[in-house]
Structure formats: C-alpha cells, structure tokens
Amino acid sequence: MSSDVVETFNALVGDLDYPMFIVTAAAGDDRAGCLIGFGSQTSIDPPRFLTALSRSNRTHDIASRADLLGVHFVPAEAAGLAELFGGVSGYDEDKFDQVAWHAGPEGTPLLDACANRFVGRILERFDVGDHEGFLLEPVAAEKGTSSEEFTFHRAKRIEAGREA
Questions:
Q1: Whole-model pTM?
Q2: CA dist., res. 89 & res. 84, Å (int)
Q3: For all residues of the chain together, what is the average pLDDT?
C-alpha cells in the first residue's frame, strides 16, 4: 500500500467524530478497562456489537480470558473518566481503585458514571490488524440517560497510557 493512500486514508478517518466507549473485562480476580474508539453495532437481528481492543494493553490480556465484556457509552461530561481509562495503563495502576463501580454479570466491572451500558457475551475473536475484534451478543443492557457522548475529537487530546 502506498504511503499516499495511507496518509489520505488517515486524514479521512481522522475527520470522523464518532463516540468513544470504555470496555471492561474480568477473568478470575483480574479486571481491566480501557477507552476505545473502534466499536459499532454490526447486526439488528440478532443484535451484535463489535469492539476492537489493542493487543498492547492489559484490557486485551484480560478480555482474551473473559467470556463477557462491558461496553460503556461515555457521557460528554465524563472527561475525567475518559482520561483515566484512556491515559493510564492498567499495567501501571488499578483504575478501578479510582472510580465507583460494581460487579455485573459474571463479575464484569460496570462503571457507575456511565448509566448507558451493556454487557456482551464474546461470540468470536478475530484479527483486525493491530487490534483484535470481539463480536458481542448483549446479555444485559441499561439505558439510564439521554446525553451527548464523549467523542473521538475530544479523546484525541488524551495522551495514551500505552501505545496501540
């Protein structure tokens, strides 16, 4: 692939302003979570959602052993939460010590500051480049508020806790 194509593609997708999510996972006594931008509904019937996690972060390590993932719709006013889950590596500190959360299905961490969220059973894992895709089937869902979401353009200002 030519560098011109890559550069132009990156400029095109860099202009998109899509919602950011925080994905959480638990396996045994281990838990992790990270801010992601690669997530989308992929099917209406049956309902399916795809998340992509960077292989370089701790959330991916825990998700590779988990059966369920929590997907949190980050509200616009939760910039601090987005900065914590996007700017701090789970290898360096336990992010859950710094936020209110509770255990959901099978111990999946659910962030209290994100009233809109779902837990999805991992149906498939597959290579999508430098990330791994996780195809999810919702098993629990909560809609607590209607609010603006925290978007990619705001997240671009967060210095990543670990390179993707």
A1: 0.89
A2: 9
A3: 90
Tokens of 39: 């997530």
**Do 39 and 115 contact (CB within 8 A), yes or no?**
no
* DSSP tally for the chain: helices H, then strands E: 4, 9
Structural domains in the chain, CATH included, are: 20-144 (2.30.110.10)
The tens digit of pLDDT for each residue in 130-140 reads 999 999 999 99
Nearest to 135, CA basis, from 147, 121, 149: 121
Name the one residue in this structure whose structure tokens are 């978007």: 151
Cite the DSSP H helix spans in 16-139.
58-63, 79-87
Which helix or strand (DSSP H or E) is residue 28 part of?
A: none
In angstroms, the CA 66 to CA 45 distance is 24
